[in-house]
């Protein structure tokens, strides 16, 4: 079914016309961005599937085509927040352009700055797996590569990252 240009607005109050939209109204990336906007403007305690759906202008059921529930929504949110952590210095350290110590220090400061604005999220995501969280994985890969470039044995990389995060 195509959306008709002169179709009346849906009674749901979303402002969308009836029928299938021409463009996908909700995507995983859009849901993550909307969740972050809801959390920033209304707080994490008000972060619900319904609030995210309202922000996107879709019915809550539309979100379930992309996320399985609140835990999956939090995983998307974690990834969105982790994407704000600065890793360019770590990449520069791996390339030998800056000292690793300086790059790790700058990463730690960025990590702390980002999560200082999202402290309620920390206990919610502390035990979430990072599988499927691309930005989170890239961030950890950059830290691991920088530590490896500094001569840290592969078996010691993860314990050092965990230690750094607990200090941050």
Topology record:
Elements: H1 28-42, H2 49-56, H3 60-63, H4 70-82, H5 88-94, H6 100-116, H7 121-125, H8 134-149, H9 154-167
Helix pairs in contact: 1-2, 1-4, 4-8, 5-6, 5-8, 6-8, 8-9
What can you tell me about this protein's structure?
This protein is mainly alpha-helical. The protein folds into two domains: 1-67, Homeodomain-like (Arc Repressor Mutant, subunit A); 82-167, no CATH class. 59% of the residues lie in helices and 0% in strands. It has helices spanning 28-42, 49-56, 60-63, 70-82, 88-94, 100-116, 121-125, 134-149, 154-167. The longest helix is centred in the middle third of the chain and has 17 residues, at 100-116. It is elongated and about 50 Å long. It starts with 27 loop residues before the first helix and ends with a helix.
Features:
168 residues; mainly alpha; Arc Repressor Mutant, subunit A; 9 helices; disordered N terminus
Kindly summarize this structure in a few lines.
The protein is mostly helical. The chain has 2 domains: 1-67, Homeodomain-like (Arc Repressor Mutant, subunit A), CATH 1.10.10.60; 82-167, no CATH class. It has helices at 28-42, 49-56, 60-63, 70-82, 88-94, 100-116, 121-125, 134-149, 154-167.
Please tell me what the overall shape is: elongated
Annotation field: number of helices: 9
What separation lies between the terminal Cα atoms?
A: 52 Å
| Proportion of residues in helical segments | 55-70%
Going by helix content, strand content and strand pairing, the class is: mainly alpha
Biggest pleated-sheet summary: none
Poorly predicted ranges (pLDDT <50, ≥5 residues)?
Answer: 1-12
Can you write the helix and strand succession as a string? HHHHHHHHH
Count every beta strand, where a strand is a DSSP E run of 2 or more residues: 0
Our count of domains comes out at 2
* Share of residues in strands: under 5%
* Global Rg: 20 Å
> On the 0-100 scale, what is the average pLDDT?
84
């Amino acid at each position: 079914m195509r959306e008709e240009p002169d179709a009346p607005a849906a009674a749901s109050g979303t402002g969308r016309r009836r029928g299938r939209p021409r463009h996908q109204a909700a995507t995983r990336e859009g849901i993550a961005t909307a969740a972050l906007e809801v959390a920033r403007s209304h707080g994490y305690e008000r972060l619900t599937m319904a609030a995210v759906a309202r922000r996107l202008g879709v019915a809550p059921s539309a979100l379930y085509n992309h996320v399985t529930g609140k835990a999956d929504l939090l995983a998307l949110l974690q990834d969105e927040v982790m994407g704000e952590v600065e890793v360019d210095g770590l990449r520069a350290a791996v390339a030998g352009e800056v000292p690793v110590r300086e790059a790790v220090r700058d990463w730690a400061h960025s990590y702390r700055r980002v999560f200082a604005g999202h402290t309620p999220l920390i206990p919610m995501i502390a035990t979430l797996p990072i599988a499927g969280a691309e930005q989170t994985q890239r961030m950890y890969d950059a830290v691991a590569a920088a530590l490896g470039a500094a001569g840290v044995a592969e078996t010691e990389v993860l314990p050092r990252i965990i230690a750094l995060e607990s200090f941050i």
